[in-house]
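Notes from hallway chat w/ T.B., transcribed later so I don't forget. T.B. wanted the structure written out for a chain they're using in a teaching module, and asked if we could keep both sequence and C-alpha cells in one place. Agreed to drop them here.
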Amino acid sequence: MPRPSRRRAAGLLSAAAALALTACSGGSAEDTAAEPATPVDGGSAAVALVEPGFLTVCSESNYPPFEMEQGGEMVGLDMDLGREIAADLGVEMKNVTLAFESIQSGAALDTDQCDVAISALSITEERRTVMDFSDPYYDNEVGLVTDGEDGVDSIDAAREEQVRVGVMQGTVGETQARELGLDAVQFEDATTLFTALSTGGVDAVLDDVTAIAEHAQDDPDFVVQETADLDDQLGVAVQKGDAAMLQAVDATLDRIEEDGTLERIVEQWIPVQEKD
C-alpha cells in the first residue's frame, strides 16, 4: 500500500495535486499582527502565526483523499496532518481553501493568507524557488490492479503477456505504462477506466494508488497485485525563509512517523487491498 515517506532512510519518494476555488481568509500582514507560538515540546524557536491562536492551513477544497468537505467540515489526510502540527504548536488548526494556483505558486504564503500550505503538494525544484518544503510525508506509488486475485500477478507478467492494461489519459499511470512497455488502453476518466476493469474490458489497470483506493471502496474485489515507486513526494510548504515554521513542521513529522500516527493516518484515508 502507499506508505509514509521514509525520510530518515535511504531514499525519498511521494504524490500529486489538483485545483479548486473558494473564498480566502486569514489576516494579512496589514490587518492582523503575527503572534509567536512556541511548540509545546520546546524543541524549536517560536513561530509567527498569521492569526493568533491558530495555525492557518491553505489547501484546495476538493482533492480526496487529501482534502474534501464532509458535513460542512474539511477532512482528509492533509487536514489530519495540519491538526497534528497545530497541536504540537499548542494552537488550533484553521483551514483556508484557495485556488490551487495561488497555493503552488507561493502567492498565498507570501501574502500571509496562511502559515503553511498542505494540499498534496509535490516537491519540485521549480516550487522550491518560491517556497520552502518540509521533509516528505507521503510516498506516491502506481499500482497494477486486477478484478480479483487470479489476474496477471505482476507488472513484468503484464508486459510479457501483453495483457490489456487500462490507464487514464494524462496521468502518471499513462506515463508509467508507456515507460514500462505495457499494452496500454487509454480512458478519458477514472469512472470508465475502473468500469472497464470490472466488466472485463481490460485485464488490469495501472493507476495512482490514491485513485485506486477511492474506487476500491465501490468494488472490494479490486486487488493491487504490485506497486511501483514514483519519483514524486508530498511536502508541507512554508513561506520562503521561514526557518522557525519549517523546523516546527519537521519536528511534528518526526514525531508522528516515530509514534506510528502518520502510518495510521495514511491507512485511514488510503486503504487498498493488496495481494497476500
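Follow-up for T.B.: The chain has two domains: 35-137+235-269, 140-231. Might be a good example for the class.
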